[in-house]
Amino acid sequence: MTPPRRLSPLDRLLDSAQNALVTVFGGARAGRANPGSDEADVALDEAERRHAAGLMRINHVGEVCAQALYVGQAAVARDPGVRDQLLAAAQEETDHLAWCADRLRELDSRPSLLNPVWYAGSWTIGALAGLRGDGWNLGFVVETERQVEAHLDEHLQVLPQADLRSRAILRTMKADEARHADHAEAAGARALPAPIPAAMASASRLMKAVAYRL
After folding, report:
1. pLDDT (0 to 100) of residue 3
2. 183 to each of 19, 77, 138, how far by Cα in Å?
3. Residues 162-191, mean pLDDT to the nearest whole number
4. Backbone dihedral region of 188: left (phi > 0), alpha (psi from -120 to 50 degrees) or beta?
5. Following DSSP, what letter does each residue of 41-99 receive, concatenated?
6. Per-residue pLDDT tens digits for 2-44
7. Which of 18, 29, 86, 135 could make an SS bond with 74 (beta carbons 3.0 to 4.6 A apart)?
């Protein structure tokens, strides 16, 4: 059997660029069926539709950021096993990205106009985290996923009760995020210093406030 080809730094750069284009400008394809497709697409009134769309746009931005974070971290990961774990998680985040985009279209809405900005900033943060070493890299994964779990819980509480499709998507996403965090902890994640989670939470609040409208 031919051993797998090792990617050169140029290969990784080109792969990162392709991921950025697909993530930011659309075209992401899910490898799993959309969990909302089996739920009835109940008609929402205009206020409910706009609110659900705002929340799903936030979640779509979250997945854009997750793609960028994981790809940025993988680009500088030292351990091939850690790199593979990050890229496997990124593939599941691609599913989330596609599902959220599907739901936004069903809600007659659109992704955030600032997706290129969200992606660039998140990729930079991911790469900087990765340069600190794989333990910090994985610690960043754990904190990111725990914060995402919390905001998905919040959205499940405030989504219109009739929006069963969005609810099914968010429940599956939440389970995936918890698993990513658990795997990163098991792989040797280091706890981040207290100011970093607080800064991440503040940045997340700003992103959610802007993405809900833009």
Report:
1. 46
2. 23, 16, 9
3. 92
4. left
5. -----HHHHHHHHHHHHHHHHHHHHHHHHHHHHHHH-SSHHHHHHHHHHHHHHHHHHHH
6. 444 565 666 666 666 666 666 777 777 888 999 999 999 898 9
7. 86
Nearest to 96 by CA among 145, 155, 29: 29
Sign of CA dihedral 86, 88, 90, 92: negative
Under 8 Å between Cβ of 207 and 65: yes
Contact of 168 with 100, CB cutoff 8 Å: no
- Tokens 């333990």 map to which residue? 135
Which one-letter amino acid corresponds to residue 109? S
Taking residue 126's Cβ as centre, other Cβ atoms within 10 Å add up to: 27
Name the residue type at position 203: A
Q: What CATH class does 43-211 carry?
A: mainly alpha
What is the distance between the alpha carbons of residues 8 and 61, in angstroms, rounded to a whole number? Answer: 30
- Residues making up the chain, counted from first to last: 214
Cβ(104)–Cβ(57) under 8 Å? yes
